[in-house]
Specification:
This protein is an alpha/beta fold and 300 residues long. 34% of the residues lie in helices and 24% in strands. The strands form two sheets. A six-stranded mixed β-sheet has the order 2-3-1-4-5-6, with helices on both faces. Strands 7-8-9 form a three-stranded mixed β-sheet. Helix 6 packs antiparallel against helix 8. The longest helix is centred in the last third of the chain and has 18 residues. The two termini are 36 Å apart.
Length: 300
Amino acid sequence: MEKFKSGFVSILGRTNVGKSTLINSLAGEKVAIMTNKPQTTRTAIRAIVNRPNSQIIFIDTPGIHKPKSKLGNTMIETAFGTVEDVDVILFLVEATSNQIGKGDKIILEKLKQHNGNVILVINKIDLVNKEQLAKVIDLYSNELNFNAIVPISALKNKQTQEILDEIEKLLKPGPAYYDIEEFTDQTQRQLAEEVIREKALKLLDDEVPHGIYIEIEKMKHTKSKLKEDLYNIEATIYCLRDSHKGIIIGKNGQMLKKIGTYARQDLEKMLNAKVNLKTWVKVKKDWLDEEKIVKKFKPN
């Protein structure tokens, strides 16, 4: 009988390359929020994939970018901080690239100093032809000797299972670190905060979203009059400027209402219960550089 294997896998890549889409596709659950805006992921999020003969724990890291604040520095430290402690690294790049960009070069330099297993995952193959894909494979193969190269489309869930097969080959026998019913190590509060942030990221103007963070002030599980499961959730959306506060609230409170409605719909699916969600907006001008807040985004 085949021995049970387990291990930790870090996903590295530039911002907006599709790491969160991939991690949700592999986990089969919504673990990481997804938007088309860069630097969406701020912390190292864990997704747990249970297979018949293995348990694979994925760590979705913040995208590599040039930091401009304490939070930005923390995000880069978090991304590279996972490298030495994992069994396998997935290096995610785009099939549409004609050259190796700055962010990918920084990651490659780190990987060249690393002696562990690295799988190159080429995302967005649905956007290119075979010749372009061959070019990208050559481009990166000349830089590093990868354990495997897997072309995929994370958005269309194409060939993502092959990644799991390749990872499993590289893992050593080991125990299941998490219960097989679990799919993430995030708490319900953290997941709820991220759901609200995702809706804000998708709905707001470009200059606002990265200056916000969400804090769940209250999350209470109770029963409704009809004896249904009910969560009363109160959340504060913090932003950097008074002008941003106005945009988040919107004319006659319409934008905040829209964020709340979309977030509540997702939360009800996630919690499998009715949700009563109340949101407030407050200005906190220097939170990006405030140690007490930035500490929240550091890995445990």
